TrEMBL record:
Origin species: Variovorax guangxiensis
InterPro entries: RraA/RraA-like, RraA/RraA-like_sf
Positions annotated to bind substrate: 97-100, 119
Alphabetized Gene3D superfamilies for the sequence: Ribonuclease E inhibitor RraA/RraA-like (3.50.30.40)
Name of the protein in question: Putative 4-hydroxy-4-methyl-2-oxoglutarate aldolase
Length: 230
């Protein structure tokens, strides 16, 4: 997939995303009519935060007489990418371990997101390298999975991800913003954050919560029709 968005624009989108939390971005996705919340994908450490554009990897089960493949793509991934691995949610083998963590950290990747599991979590925590997955377990994927595609459409937690889509992760999980919708979703999330901050400020100043929410349209912030009612 060829992007028509300039690298400088992509960098600006990443900076804006890092200033927003996944909860606000989730509401902005709802307001945009986009299902971009990755179900049951969580950080291996609650302090992990990341934002970047997807470099996608698709795995399939290895045939009985086929040599398994895990991770040899890493040298070709651009720095700053979020390595986005679709292992179809398999939780009986890992697709990522300490060698890949160290390599990705050394090459300055933004993080890794896996629809599946990883292992060697101690090193990712030590290096503060963000990994988001369905869990962790020590069993290797070597000899059990084979590469099915690079930079192809994948699914993460039920969400379609294309190469170049923007991923944001924090303690609440991962959201995916389609590349063509970055400006709209980020703008909506910035507006939602501003309104929620105003609600909290009003409550601290003595307003009842129901009144502060009414004044700032709290119950409609994530609604697709919000632009028409405010």
């Amino acid at each position: 997939m060829t992007s028509s968005i300039a690298p400088t624009d992509n960098a600006a989108f990443i900076e804006r995303a890092l200033r927003l939390d996944c909860a606000a971005l989730s509401d902005a996705l709802d307001r945009s009519g986009i299902a971009g919340q990755c179900y049951e994908i969580s950080p291996r450490d609650p302090g992990f935060r990341m934002a970047g554009h997807a470099y996608t990897v698709l795995y399939r089960p290895a045939a009985h007489d086929e040599e398994g493949f895990v991770g040899d793509f890493i040298d070709d991934v651009p720095p700053g990418s979020v390595i986005t691995i679709d292992n179809r949610g398999r939780d009986n083998m890992g697709t990522w371990g300490n060698i890949l963590t160290e390599m990705a950290h050394y090459r300055k990747m933004a993080g890794t997101v896996i629809d599946g599991i990883n292992r060697d979590v101690a090193l990712c925590r030590e290096l503060n390298y963000p990994i988001f997955s369905r869990g962790h377990w020590m069993r290797t994927g070597k000899g059990r999975i084979q590469l099915a595609g690079l930079q192809v459409p994948v699914q993460i937690g039920g969400v379609n991800v294309n190469p170049g889509d923007l991923l944001r992760g924090d303690a609440d999980g991962v959201v995916v913003i389609p590349q063509a919708m970055q400006e709209q979703v980020l703008t909506y999330a910035e507006e939602i954050t501003e309104q929620e901050n105003a609600i909290r400020a009003g409550i601290r100043a003595g307003l009842r919560m129901d009144e502060a929410r009414r004044v700032h349209h709290y119950h409609h912030l994530q609604s697709p029709g919000y632009d028409k009612i405010r």
